[in-house]
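Here is one chain, start to finish.
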Amino acid sequence: MMKQITLTLLAVGVLSGCSMAPKYMRPDAPVAASYPEHREAQGAQRSAAETGWRDFFHDARLQTLIGRALENNRDLRVAALRIEEARAQYNIVQADRVPNLNGTATGNRGRTPASVNQFGQSVVTSNYQVGVSLASFELDFFGRVKSLSDAALASYLSTEEARVSAQLSLISEVAKAYLNERAFAEQEELARRTLESRAKGYELAKQRFDVGATSALDLQQNEALLQTARVTAASVARQRAQAWNALTVLVGQPLTDLPAPQPLSSQDIVTELPAGLPSDLLVQRPDIRSAEQTLLAANANIGAARAAFFPRISLTAGVGTASNSLDGLFESGSRAWSFAPQLVLPIFQGGRNTANLNLAEVRKNIAVANYEKTIQVAFQEVADALVARGFLDEQADAQERVQRAQAERMKFADQRFENGIASSLDVLDAQRELFSAEQELVQIRLLRLTNAVDLYRSLGGGIRETTATAAAPTTPATPAP
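Its structure:
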């Protein structure tokens, strides 16, 4: 009997390879074949996906922050636990594709009273059984269980890609939060120096006013500039403190024992990254790969819904020994077996199977739309970053020239005022314009750096830690449709 069961299970293993899921066809990318006109990076050798984040960010403090964030960030930790959850769910579904054998041991004793016994005597009966049983095992002739297993596998792979996408986003957010804090730090220092300078200017103006060398209007203008500098200094200090708090949350622990920071002007972030073609994003972006795995899961669920229209055959079997006494369980002639196949043919389900199939098809259409939208968003992110790269480079160069010109103007205004050629209004106006130019230069440098970070992330950068020593990132295989 066991030989027959074994042969049956082998046949099932051959026959269960079929699937009623529709053949998977990757949807066409709903974007242009190339990015809008942009200045391509000159001399760039490695793509963003091949560039490790430690080679992209050279600031030792930023590297430390990113490393700690990857270890302690709660959102990334939840994403990793989601992978464990999806893996367990896949293992549960996968277990249905193989027979489940259980060791069994049962025993019972019972007394039948004389009043209900046909012989008019009370009877005590015993029954003991020991063996191996095969629980209800579905013969997957129409691929229902296989489709469910494929769907669970695709969901697991989608979750794993989602974790990689969360890692890339975390690296990007930590870098931008750090750069933002550094920008506020530089603006705070500018505001502090300006406040000190204007405080001295106000004291000088007050002394001149007291001796009648200047008008009340000049004094009030000096005071207005002084108070404006105080407002700016307090505002920037508040924003820097809030930026530090945001960075602390991203890292997931108090920010202590950090290397010395670098100013924005010394941030040697790689800005010249080759964009490649939009089709490259399909393999470089983990969020696109995740969306495609979700689409594959929806496609497999259609196969399971189709198979529900066909008969479901299951086997239940057991083999062992049985006796009415414990001593006789293993005696000759006590062998016992059972074999109970079952066929369930759906006849009337009240439209349930049809509704389930319609639901599976609608969910696939939703997955297709989400997949296409993910590609479009990725294309836009790359295109925006590429367009901004050239303009921000030009804008930063122009603003540096503006700042130098305002600094020269300030120097000349001071000289002219000291020689009695210019009025104090000229000096005050030059101070105001210089401070504004310096603040604007910090903002443009920040925009240029954060745009480089956005381009790095949008091109799939951040999977590797280092370029030279890291192995190629593992891309989960797509299950065969």
